[in-house]
Automatic annotation (TrEMBL), chain A:
Keywords: ATP-binding, Nucleotide-binding, Transport. This is Amino acid/amide ABC transporter ATP-binding protein 1 (HAAT family). It comes from Marinobacterium mangrovicola. The lineage of its organism: Bacteria, Pseudomonadati, Pseudomonadota, Gammaproteobacteria, Oceanospirillales. It comes from the Bacteria. One of its GO terms (cellular component) is plasma membrane. One of its GO terms (molecular function) is L-phenylalanine transmembrane transporter activity. InterPro entries: AAA+_ATPase, ABC_AA/LPS_Transport, ABC_transporter-like_ATP-bd, BCA_ABC_TP_C, P-loop_NTPase.
TrEMBL record, chain C:
InterPro entries: AAA+_ATPase, ABC_transporter-like_ATP-bd, ABC_transporter-like_CS, BCAA_Transport_ATP-bd_LivF, P-loop_NTPase. Residues 7-237 form the ABC transporter domain. This is Amino acid/amide ABC transporter ATP-binding protein 2 (HAAT family). Keywords: Amino-acid transport, ATP-binding, Nucleotide-binding, Transport. Belongs to the ABC transporter superfamily. GO terms for molecular function: ATP binding; ATP hydrolysis activity; branched-chain amino acid transmembrane transporter activity. GO terms for biological process: L-amino acid transport. The lineage of its organism: Bacteria, Pseudomonadati, Pseudomonadota, Gammaproteobacteria, Oceanospirillales. PANTHER family: HIGH-AFFINITY BRANCHED-CHAIN AMINO ACID TRANSPORT ATP-BINDING PROTEIN LIVF (PTHR43820:SF4).
From TrEMBL, chain D:
Keywords: Amino-acid transport, Cell inner membrane, Cell membrane, Membrane, Transmembrane, Transmembrane helix, Transport. This is Amino acid/amide ABC transporter membrane protein 1 (HAAT family). Signal peptide: none annotated. It comes from Marinobacterium mangrovicola. Belongs to the binding-protein-dependent transport system permease family. LivHM subfamily.
From TrEMBL, chain E:
The chain crosses the membrane at residues 9-28, 34-54, 66-84, 90-108, 115-135, 141-161, 168-186, 225-243, 277-301, 313-339, 351-370. The keyword Membrane applies. GO terms for cellular component: plasma membrane. It comes from the Bacteria. GO terms for molecular function: branched-chain amino acid transmembrane transporter activity. It holds the Pfam family BPD_transp_2. It is found in: Cell inner membrane. This is Amino acid/amide ABC transporter membrane protein 2 (HAAT family). It is a multi-pass membrane protein. Keywords: Cell membrane, Membrane, Transmembrane, Transmembrane helix. InterPro entries: ABC_transp_permease (IPR001851), LivM-like (IPR043428). Signal peptide: none annotated.
Length: 261, 362, 238, 306, 383
């Protein structure tokens, strides 16, 4: 199938500095349709920074980012999202005062009608839209945790960490993005919980056409199980790329990241 | 005896509350004395309200007082902006009233309402006399500092007008907010211009600051104020720097009037903790005027209005009161005062007048 | 148990607002040993740590350090009693530099030279921190912040060190390194109370362990016993 | 303009700037600890001045008339009593509200400001009128042309500077300062480091209020006049100064204070057509400055990350 | 009795109680009586909270919003007609209502979107001055009110750039500076009346003069303030509907997201600037229309009405009510406007007492008297 081979995302020589620290150094990367890429590397090697530069939170100091054939290097965050990139954050960034439903709807932004007239005067249509989206959100959340789906109107602040992570992922997925960026989604979970989470994500991927994922994770079990390919960063530079097994047996990677047996 | 309600309005909170409370005490004194008088036909009850010196609040409480039909007469307003907003209401509700402190001419002259009267003079009279008096002393050049409230701006306007008429020259004119602390910038500039007199149009707190800072900067010019600084607190606030400061106040000096001594004694005897301040006697007179009216024509607003309209040569502790066709007291004599040895002294009686002492720069 | 316990919890009940979290938890942390606490998400592990520190004071029960009760003491007094903590989720002071963060770890230590020595020791363990001495901790990467947090915990040189999920967000290499560090700390005579998700590696260094589930202690024993315990196995080894 | 006059403006402006800077330093301290705008700051300053003034009267009453002893007495009493007041405010008004939205602390302190102001106005003898604050410093002056420099101004300037430097050193170089900053950033973790949270909050509020008392006495000594409303505008300006300078940095407070003073002086001097517009001018420039540097002139280093 | 019937009864009872309380509170003048009434109300509230009644009642309320809204309006009408010939109570009620509108504006700004505004009185003042200037020109007066809002929004746009660029305390200073600047400007500049202020001509709608009493029959005369109260009530109702609809829509969600986490909001496509501008402008608009009607009602305005302290009063209403809570705003506006007035009897001591009361309320209800609830998009609907 030709569509399978389409390049979704490409970094070319992406560079980002903070003062003296070079967080990303001439980083090249490519991602094709439907692929799950594991982005791994020691602490402080630039993984999160690459997400931040991609999503427009930080500007790139050099290089370019291409997404679905468009150059999005200096796009603002809003535009990058509109183009189909959704993310989670290493440190959960939910609005704790708002309900689960509200939080998920923040992710659904591009599907909703934000016109003043529509929102204030066309109440019937708006309520219709609310109900439709509610159903959709509920369906999605049910995949992760049916119990949570019954608590749609409870504040997120009252939930466990693990549930917050799930909601954050739902928030990212509800917009049916082309590219999903997951930053350490399993941090703080047990093996069992991690596995469940990954199964759920894979299940969702089936639902969303051509969804590609970049996964940042320190949990190698997870990386091994779900990724099609791995990219290893060290000091902002790509040191290795390939299937997990290849990468894991690389000397450099073992030294810098995995720690030899 | 029937009980009749009369009202007092003034600023009881905020920056000028000292004057307001003094006025209220004086009005209360008038009512007390009347109630103690066995010949009085009615028992009087005083309603007091705080205007906070804010027009919106003033309008509200003016409505409150005026809408209460049992209130027959009102003594009201020290702050001109409040009075300006409230006069319409008194007219609408036909409540006869007399202003006891506000000095903006427009309060009486800006309308044709027959309910509105004023026992104290306007700033016009005051500045007319002040300009003439000072030029007569031989001063030639002025720097004016005034606050940007209606009070300060009004004084600035009329004083400038009359000063030019009398041949004085204004070297500079500074408007300052009424809550300013630091005047060194204005005064430094003033110092450079080296005027004979620094005229200040505003109230005591600012006056004290300006006088004190003049000294800081070594400015030797004469300091001239308006009725707003003619208070004991100005002397308390400036200490020895007060010496030789001149100011002007409507009305003949209290102690020279037959009733003046009486008022001072009674005020002391009544045991108020606060001073009556400069406008206390006016509040007292205004209240007495209203009480006299009620005694005479009965507790009826219309009748009282009529009564007030015809007041001529009515005796009071501030001198004879005669209202013109705008309800303005016309015989408001203006008295110049000078501070001598920590006291406000009527100019004629002072050592400055007889040449023993000299004002600054003369 | 042969050794005396450095820290002992007796029949602790704890709750947030309305939600009861801990019910009748008793456990003892033997002096000089590593004791670990296992349990799934939301079991109440962090709540135990908070109870000890006095951040979430227990509703009833007793907490003893060297036989002295900590109940009712404000947190800084608990710390004075010789307890230090590496809190869950790193919790570095974002607007302070790495060095200032470390210094705060030794807040109750007043000798400047002692503090300097300890900073040097921490730098030895985490060379990355030495490189980044002056960086504001808030701008560091997740793992770097974890290093700051661990380093800061070591600065106190406590009798008992409470550690809540230290390997969260650390690279595999560092996770291993981290367990080595914990072992070394323990070898210096510090009693360690370790909360972890990483069952294999935890049981490998711990002497003794408890398993918590929904606010109850459901299993306890030596590390060996626990790793052979069928239930535990099922639940956590998958 | 001749040099003497220019010098005069500069010295006056510096005095004013110092006054603002001292108030701004107080604000910076409070932001530092609980991230609150403490709107009663100006009024605490005023109460401090009145406390000092009463001390002066008291000393006079028992026959002590040595200016130096009086000065020390005034300062000590004002500073000590305000430090206590600050700690009480922290204990009973600020700490109980620490889990409420920060703006609510603002409201409470605002109301407290009203309480203090009204209390002085009503209960201090003749409190609604301005008072003459004694000149306790040497009043020698040097005059060069139109330039007039008084010894008391110089002493006050130096004194103010010393206080600011002292506070700066305290915050950045001492354990107490470190604890203050730690508490500001994360209360719970600070506690876990063995910091006595309550104590630190009380101390900081005590310190901030003591600085306010100092500024108040300085104000009194310089202007020789005090009144119950003096804190209001000073508070607002001090707050603005702290902000335009940039929070989280004592130097920002100093810079902000001096800029504000400069703007006002400039406005009064250089707007010949209407000096009354000088505040309009100053505040317009403040707005423009903030639009230009949204986190203050000495911007806080970003410490947040995603 | 079924639950829903019970709910309805509770609401009606509450509305009746509220109306009775208001009537008594406004009518009494004696210091002791006021004090007794306040204590009584306080005891009642505390007791019902202790008995767990408050929770039950609030549940009943949230189940029957429509009835609650309608019966509140009815209760308000009862109060208004009770005082139909008493000018002053009506004036105070209208003032409260207009403050509610202005504070809803502020609520939109910092309750929803987190854009702090310490210049509320200035925008209110823009509305007032618009009414004063246009009042005599023959412009239809409903249009004048709208223009008051529009002018406030336009003047506010001067601040858009700094407001968008700043956050937190920095943003606070922008508006504080503007508030001070606005007032000083009005005072110094004589074109708009200077410090003396301006008279404002009263409202006149289709030949109906708002400033004369309404003769119903020979013996029944309504105070002319009735006109303003009714108009203000309508304004409050419309504002209430607008606020509610915005809150319960995607716009409200966007506002909240902007307030709570700008970075995350931006990463999900929310245009921070757009929503901040909308809420700032809309908020100022509300303050402006309230100001315009207020000026017409009062008949006179002056710069000293729009001082920093007046802005702070508006802010304190919002905070006291609970950020983002409309009912809270209504309650707090009543408290803040009526309390000092009711305390007139204690004269110069009243601000002291007022401030003390406010502090006490906040110490016991740090989140405001009626904190905002979680958003429920469609009343009663839970999926
Ligand atoms: N805003 C910033 N200011 C200064 N330095 C920064 C900033 N953001 C990141 N850095 C530095 O850039 C480097 C890369 O950080 P990044 O967060 O991308 O690491 P990471 O690969 O995600 O690590 P981890 O696995 O620990 O999360 C780090 O050394 C970090 O300290
Ligand atoms: N501040 C709080 N308010 C209310 N409930 C809380 C609070 N903190 C934790 N909880 C609840 O208490 C329970 C136990 O939480 P705790 O943090 O102790 O679990 P844990 O075992 O440490 O989990 P994790 O592995 O996620 O760290 C959870 O159900 C959680 O939702
Ligand atoms: Mg990262
Ligand atoms: Mg935990």
């Amino acid at each position: 199938m030709e569509q399978q081979q389409e390049t979704v995302l490409a970094f070319k020589g992406l560079t980002r500095r903070f003062g003296g620290v070079v967080a990303l150094n001439e980083f090249d990367m490519e991602l094709t349709n439907g692929q799950i890429v594991g982005l791994i590397g020691p602490n402080g090697s630039g993984k999160t920074t690459s997400f931040n530069v991609l999503t427009g939170i930080y500007e790139a100091n050099g290089g370019s980012i291409e997404f679905l054939g468009q150059d999005i290097t200096s796009w603002p965050a809003q535009k990058v999202y509109e183009a189909g990139v959704a993310r989670t954050f290493q440190r959960s960034r939910l609005c704790l005062e708002l309900s689960i439903f509200d939080n998920i709807m923040i992710g659904a932004h591009k599907r909703l009608n934000h016109g003043f007239m529509f929102n204030v005067f066309k109440r019937k249509a708006l309520q219709q839209q609310i109900k439709e989206n509610y159903d959709e959100a509920r369906k999605l959340l049910t995949i992760f945790d049916p119990e949570l789906a019954d608590k749609m109107f409870e504040p997120v602040g009252s939930l466990r960490m693990i549930d917050r992570r799930r909601i954050e992922i739902c928030r990212a997925l509800i917009s049916h993005p082309r590219l999903l960026l997951l930053d350490e989604p399993s941090a703080g979970m047990t093996h069992e919980e991690t596995r469940e989470l990954m199964d759920d994500i894979l299940e969702v991927r089936e639902m969303i056409d051509g969804l590609s994922i970049i996964l940042v994770e320190h949990e190698m079990g997870m990386i091994e199980r779900v990724t099609d390919k791995c990219i290893v960063l060290n000091f902002g530079q790509k040191i290795c790329e390939g299937a997990y097994r290849e990468v894991a047996s690389n000397k450099l990677v073992q030294e810098a990241y995995l720690g030899g047996e | 005896k029937d009980t009749v309600k009369v009202a007092f309005i003034g600023p009881l909170t905020g920056g000028v509350s000292a004057v307001g409370v003094g006025g209220r005490n004086s009005a209360e004194l008038a009512v007390q004395l009347r109630n103690a008088d066995p010949d009085a036909k009615y028992e009087y009850e005083l309603v007091t309200q705080d205007s906070e010196c804010k027009p919106n609040v003033g309008v509200q409480i003016a409505t409150k007082v005026a809408a209460d039909r049992s209130v027959i007469g009102l003594v009201g307003h020290y702050c001109s902006a409040v009075a300006m907003g409230a006069v319409d209401i008194y007219h609408r509700f036909n409540l006869p009233m007399s202003v006891w402190g506000a000095v903006l001419p427009d309060v009486t002259y800006g309308n044709d309402y027959k309910e509105i009267h004023r026992v104290n003079g306007t700033m016009i009279n005051q500045n007319e006399v002040a300009a003439k008096f000072m030029t007569d002393q031989g001063y030639k050049t002025w720097v004016i500092i005034h606050d940007t409230t209606d009070y300060g701006k009004g004084h600035d306007k009329y004083f400038s007008e009359y000063l030019t008429e009398n041949g004085g020259e204004i070297l500079a004119d500074f408007g300052v907010p009424a809550d300013q602390q630091d005047f060194t910038a204005e005064l430094t500039k003033a110092k450079q211009l080296n005027p004979d007199v620094i005229y200040f149009g505003g109230l005591t707190p600012l006056g004290v600051r300006i006088r004190a800072q003049m000294d800081k900067l070594g400015i030797e010019s004469q300091f001239q104020g308006v009725s707003g600084i003619k208070s004991d607190s100005f002397i308390d606030g400036t200490g020895e720097l007060a010496e030789g400061v001149v100011s002007f106040l409507e009305g003949a000096p209290l102690e020279k009037l037959p009733g003046g001594q009486f008022f001072s004694e009674k005020y002391k005897a009544a045991g108020f903790t606060e001073s009556e301040e400069a406008y206390g006697p006016f509040a007292f007179s205004a209240m007495n005027l209203i009480l006299d009216g009620i005694e005479e024509v009965g507790p009826n607003r219309k009748a009282l209005t009529e009564y007030l309209g015809n007041i001529q040569d009515h005796d009071s502790v501030v001198g004879k009161i005669s209202f013109d066709d705008h309800g303005q007291n016309t015989v408001a004599a203006i008295t110049p005062y000078v501070i001598q040895d920590g006291k406000w002294v009527v100019w004629e009686d002072s050592e400055y007048a007889d040449g023993t002492r000299k004002l600054a720069g003369l | 148990m042969a050794t005396a316990s450095a820290l002992e919890l007796k029949n602790i009940y704890a709750a947030y607002d309305s939600a009861d979290v801990l019910e009748d938890v008793s456990l003892s942390v033997p002096a000089g040993k590593i004791t670990c606490l296992l349990g799934s998400n939301g079991a109440g592990k962090s709540t135990i740590i908070r109870s000890i520190l006095g951040l979430t004071p227990p509703r009833s029960g007793d907490i003893l350090v060297d036989g002295e009760s900590l109940i009712g003491l404000p947190t800084h007094k608990v710390i004075s009693a010789g307890i230090a903590c590496i809190p869950e989720g790193r919790k570095v002071f974002p607007k302070m530099t790495v060095v200032e963060n470390l210094r705060l770890g030794a807040f109750q230590e007043s000798s400047e030279s002692v503090i300097r020595d300890r900073i040097d020791q921490v730098f030895e363990i985490f060379p990355r921190l030495k490189e980044r001495k002056g960086q504001l901790a808030g701008t560091m990467s997740g793992g770097e912040q974890a290093m700051v947090s661990i380093g800061r915990g070591l600065m106190a040189a406590p009798k008992v060190l409470l550690i809540d999920e230290p390997s969260l967000g650390l690279s595999p290499l560092f996770v291993k390194e981290n367990f080595n560090i914990i072992r070394r700390i323990n070898e210096q005579g510090i009693t360690v109370f370790l909360v972890e998700q990483n069952v294999h590696q935890t049981l490998a260094i711990a002497h003794y362990g408890y398993v918590l589930s929904q606010g109850h202690v459901v299993a306890q024993g030596t590390a060996k016993e626990l790793s052979e315990n069928a239930e535990v196995h099922e639940a956590y080894f998958g | 303009m001749d040099m003497g006059l220019l010098g005069q403006f500069i010295v006056n402006g510096m005095m004013l700037g110092m006054m603002y800077a001292l108030v701004a330093v107080g604000f910076t301290l409070f932001f530092g600890v609980l991230d609150v705008i403490k709107f009663s700051h100006g009024d605490v300053l005023m109460v401090g001045t009145f406390a000092g003034f009463s001390t002066y009267l008291g000393l006079g009453a028992i026959g002590i008339d040595n200016a130096f002893v009086q000065l020390v007495g005034v300062l000590v009493v004002a500073i000590a009593s305000m430090a206590l007041l600050g700690a009480i405010i922290a204990r009973y008004l600020v700490l109980p509200l620490k889990s409420a939205p920060p703006l609510n602390t603002l409201l409470v302190t605002l109301m407290l400001g009203t309480v203090l102001r009204e209390a002085i106005r009503l209960f201090y003898p003749d409190g609604s009128n301005p008072k003459r604050f004694p000149a306790l410093l040497p009043t020698d002056s040097w005059t060069i042309g139109s330039f007039n420099l008084r010894a008391d101004s110089v002493i006050l300037l130096v004194g103010g500077l010393l206080v600011i430097v002292g506070v700066h050193v305290l915050i950045n170089r001492t354990r107490l300062g470190m604890a203050i900053r730690a508490v500001a950033q994360d209360e719970e973790t600070a506690k876990c480091m063995g910091i006595n949270f309550k104590m630190i909050v009380l101390l900081t509020f005590g310190l901030g209020s003591a600085v306010a008392a100092f500024a108040g006495v300085m104000n009194g000594l310089y202007y020789n006049e005090i009144n119950f409303g003096m804190g209001l505008l000073l508070g607002v300006i001090g707050f603005s100064a702290a902000i335009i300078g940039g929070l989280g940095n004592i130097y920002g407070a100093i810079l902000g204070g001096f800029i504000f003073a400069a703007l006002q002086t400039l406005g009064a001097v250089a707007l010949p057509f209407a000096s009354a517009y000088k505040d309009v001018f100053a505040f317009a420039v403040v707005i423009a400055l903030i639009a230009w540097r949204p986190t203050g002139l000495i911007a806080e280093k970003t410490s947040e990350r995603v | 009795m079924t639950q829903s019937l019970k709910d309805k009864l509770i609401i009606l009872l509450l509305a009746a109680l509220g109306a009775a309380f208001l009537v008594t509170f406004i009518a009494i003048e004696e210091q002791a009586e006021i004090f007794a009434l306040l204590v009584f109300a306080g005891v009642l509230i505390i007791a019902s909270a202790k008995l767990g009644l408050t929770d039950k009642i609030s549940q009943s309320l949230s189940r029957n919003e429509r009835l609650l809204n309608l019966s509140s309006i009815a209760a308000m009408l009862v109060v208004i007609f009770w005082f139909h010939e008493d000018h002053f109570p009506l004036l105070m009620i209208a003032t409260v209502l207009l403050y509610v509108v202005a504070c809803c504006g502020l609520n939109m700004q910092f309750g929803y979107t987190g854009v702090v505004n310490f210049a509320g009185a200035a925008f209110f003042g823009v509305g007032c001055y618009t009414a004063a200037v246009l009042g005599g020109t023959g412009t239809p007066l409903l249009l004048v009110i709208a223009l008051g809002g529009v002018m406030a929004a336009i003047v506010g746009s001067i601040l858009i750039i700094p407001v968008l660029r700043t956050r937190g305390h920095y943003a606070a200073v922008v508006t504080i500076a503007f508030g001070l600047l606005f007032r000083t400007f009005l005072e110094v500049n004589d074109t708009l009346g200077g410090p003396q202020g301006l008279p404002v001509s009263g409202m006149n709608l289709f030949g109906w003069d708002f400033n004369s009493n309404i003769q119903i029959t020979e013996n029944i005369e309504f105070s002319f303030y009735m006109n303003y109260v009714i108009l203000a009530l309508i304004m409050v109702i419309l504002t209430f509907i607008l606020m509610r609809r915005i809150e319960r829509s995607w716009i409200g969600l966007n506002f909240d997201a902007v307030r709570l986490d700008e970075t995350a909001a931006a990463c999900y496509g929310i245009n921070i600037k757009r929503w901040k501008i909308l809420s700032f402008t809309l908020g100022n608009f509300l303050a402006g229309i309230a100001g315009a009607l207020f000026a017409m009602m009062l008949g006179f305005i002056a710069p000293s009405n729009f001082a920093f302290s007046d802005s702070l009063i508006l802010v304190s209403i919002v905070l006291l009510g609970g950020m983002g809570s409309i009912w809270g705003t209504i309650l707090a506006a009543g408290l803040v406007v009526l309390l000092p007035e009711k305390l007139q009897v204690i004269q110069e001591y009243r601000f002291l007492l007022y401030a003390v009361v406010m502090i006490l309320i906040l110490l016991f209800r740090p989140q405001g008297v009626l904190p905002r609830n979680l958003r429920s998009y469609i009343p009663g609907w839970r999926g």
